[in-house]
Design a protein that fits this description.
Layout lengths: L21 H10 L14 E2 L11 H8 L9 H14 L3 E5 L2 H12 L5 E4 L4 H9 L3 E4 L20 H9 L8 E5 L12 H13 L3 E5 L3 H11 L8 H8 L5 E5 L10 E5 L2 H14 L10 H14 L2 H20 L12 E5 H4 L9 H13 L1 E2 L1 E3 L1 H4 L15 E5 L7 H16 L8 E5 L10 E4 L1
Bound molecules: pyridoxal-5'-phosphate.
Length: about 450
C-alpha cells in the first residue's frame, strides 16, 4: 500500500472553535447587515476570510518571542532579522515596518510623485491605493491569459513584456520611479510569476534605467511554483530559488503576515544604500526608528524564524497541497473554481454558480452569505461590492468576474475542515436553481465600501 501524504508537523496547542446552529447564524448575519466583516469571530466556525496574519506560529517562533530584544536602537532582534533577510534575498539594507501597506507608504513617500506611472502585474489593492493617493497611476501589464479563469497556464502572474515595453517607451523616464512585480500575484488569484519572466522584466527595466521592486508577500509560495512548474528548477532548493528570484529586483516590500508566518509585521529591503537613505526619514516619521520601524523586538525575532520555516520545501508542500486539496474536491463536485489553483486561496466563480442571481443583486455576496448560513464558513466576496462605484459617474462598477475567495490560513486547519467547506458548497450547488434573488445595498461608505456596507435581502 502506498504511504499517503501527511503534514510535516504535529499540533502542540489548540484553540476551540464552535459550530453554531443555522438559527443562530440567521440572526447574526441579519444583525450584521449581511456583511461578513461585521461578524464577531466567535460567530464563525471556519474562517477563510483571509490568509493574512492568521497563520499559526511554531514552537520555535514562540520561543524566539521570549528572547526578543526590546532596545529602542540597535536591537539584536533587528540584526537577527536583517541577517536572515540578507541571507534569503541578498539585499543589504533593511527597514522594518508594521505591515505591508506601511512599507508601501514609506517607499512611495520617498519615490512616487504626482503624475508618475508605475507599471506592474495587477497591483494589490493597498499598493494601488497608495499609488493613486499620490495622484500617480498604476498600469496593469499582466498577460491577458490571467483573466481567463478556466485556462490552464502555469504562470498567470507573468507580465506581458510588450505591454510593459510600450509603457516604458511612451513615457518620460523621470515619471516612472519603478516597476512593481507582485509575487505571487494576489489580484489574479495567487498566481505565480516565472523566473524567466522576472529575468526578462529586469533586463527590460535595465535597458530603460528603471528600478524593479517585488511586492513579495507570497514570495516563498512563488518559489515553490517555480520549483514544481518551471523547467530547470526541479532539483534546486527553495532557498536557492528565492535567492535567484531577488537577483532580478532592486528591492522589495513585504507583508510578513503572509509567507513570514507571523501575525503582524512587514519590511522594505534595498540593494542600494542611496534608496535606503531616501526612505529612512519617512520610516522614522511614520513607523519608528530604523531598527524597529513599528515592530516589537520579539516580533522581529519571530519573523526571522518564520522566514526560515516559510522557505522550507516540506512546509510549502503541505501548505500548497492543502489549498489544492480543497480545489480538487470542489472540482470533483462540479463547483466552478479558478484554474490552476492559486497558492493561498481557491476562487469560486459565483456568477457561474448562482447563474440566476442578476449581477445587480451581487451573486458573489449572495454566495458568501449562503456559505456562512450553511456551515458557519466565512469567505470574502471579490466582486461588484468590492469593486465599488466609479469615482466620476458614481455608478456601480461590475468587474469581469464575480468571485468568492476561500483563503487558507497557514498551518491552522486540517483537511477535515476543508471537507466541511466542500460539503457546504456542494449542498448549496445542489439547490442553486432555487436561489434566484440576491441583495440590495442600504448603506455604504464613499470608498472601500465592502468593509462596512449594509445590505438587505431582495
Ligand atoms: C497583504 C498584501 C499587501 C499589504 O500588506 P498588509 O500587511 O496587509 O498591509 C501588499 N501586497 C500584497 C501582494 C499583499 O498580499
Amino acid at each position: 500500500m502506498k504511504i499517503p501524504y501527511a503534514e510535516p508537523y504535529k499540533i502542540k496547542m489548540v484553540e476551540p472553535i464552535r459550530i453554531s446552529s443555522r438559527h443562530e447564524r440567521e440572526e447574526w448575519i441579519s444583525n450584521s447587515g449581511f456583511n461578513l466583516f461585521n461578524l464577531k469571530s466567535e460567530q464563525v466556525y471556519i474562517d477563510l476570510l483571509t490568509d493574512s496574519g492568521t497563520g499559526a506560529m511554531s514552537d520555535r517562533q514562540w520561543s524566539a518571542i521570549m528572547s526578543g530584544d526590546e532596545s529602542y536602537a540597535g536591537s539584536s532582534s533587528y540584526y537577527k532579522l536583517k541577517d536572515k533577510i540578507h541571507d534569503l534575498t541578498g539585499f543589504e539594507y533593511i527597514l522594518p515596518t508594521h505591515q505591508g501597506r506601511a512599507a508601501e507608504n514609506v517607499l512611495f513617500s520617498a519615490k512616487v510623485k504626482e503624475n508618475d506611472i508605475i507599471p506592474g502585474n495587477a497591483h494589490f489593492d493597498t499598493t494601488k491605493g497608495h499609488i493613486e493617493f499620490r495622484k500617480a497611476k498604476a498600469i496593469d501589464c499582466t498577460i491577458a491569459e490571467a483573466y481567463d479563469t478556466e485556462l490552464i497556464d502555469p504562470f498567470k502572474g507573468n507580465l506581458d513584456l510588450e505591454k510593459l515595453e510600450s509603457v516604458l517607451k511612451n513615457n518620460p523616464r523621470e515619471n516612472i520611479p519603478m516597476i512593481i512585480v507582485t509575487i505571487t500575484c494576489n489580484t489574479t488569484g495567487g498566481q505565480p510569476v516565472s523566473m524567466q519572466n522576472m529575468k526578462d522584466v529586469y533586463s527590460l527595466a535595465g535597458k530603460y534605467g528603471i528600478k524593479v521592486f517585488f511586492d513579495s508577500a507570497r514570495f516563498a509560495e512563488n518559489a515553490y511554483f517555480i520549483k514544481i512548474r518551471e523547467k530547470g528548477y526541479k532539483n534546486t532548493s527553495i532557498k536557492e530559488i528565492v535567492r535567484e528570484m531577488f537577483r532580478y529586483a532592486d528591492g522589495m516590500t513585504m507583508s510578513s503576515k503572509k509567507d513570514g508566518i507571523v501575525n503582524i509585521g512587514g519590511f522594505i529591503a534595498f540593494r542600494e544604500k542611496e534608496w535606503y537613505n531616501a526612505a529612512t526619514t519617512f520610516n522614522i516619521m511614520f513607523e519608528g526608528y530604523l531598527t524597529y520601524g513599528g515592530m516589537a523586538g520579539r516580533d522581529m525575532n519571530a519573523l526571522a524564524q518564520g522566514l526560515s520555516e516559510g522557505t522550507e520545501f516540506e512546509y510549502l508542500e503541505s501548505r500548497i497541497r492543502q489549498v489544492a486539496y480543497l480545489g480538487e474536491q470542489l472540482t470533483k463536485n462540479q463547483i466552478p473554481v479558478q484554474q490552476p489553483f492559486g497558492g493561498h486561496a481557491i476562487f469560486v466563480n459565483a456568477s457561474k454558480f448562482l447563474y440566476k442571481v442578476p449581477r445587480e443583486e451581487f451573486p458573489g455576496q449572495t454566495l458568501a452569505v449562503e456559505l456562512y448560513l450553511e456551515a458557519g464558513v466565512r469567505a470574502a466576496e471579490i466582486g461588484a461590492i468590492m469593486a465599488d462605484r466609479d469615482p466620476v459617474t458614481r455608478k456601480n462598477r461590475y468587474p469581469e468576474l464575480e468571485l468568492v475567495r476561500l483563503a487558507i490560513p497557514r498551518r491552522v486547519f486540517t483537511n477535515n475542515h476543508m471537507d466541511v467547506v466542500v460539503a457546504a458548497l456542494t449542498n448549496i450547488y445542489n439547490r442553486r436553481n432555487k436561489i434566484q434573488r440576491g441583495y440590495k445595498i442600504i448603506r455604504e461608505a464613499p470608498i472601500l465600501r465592502h468593509f462596512t456596507v449594509e445590505l438587505d435581502r431582495i
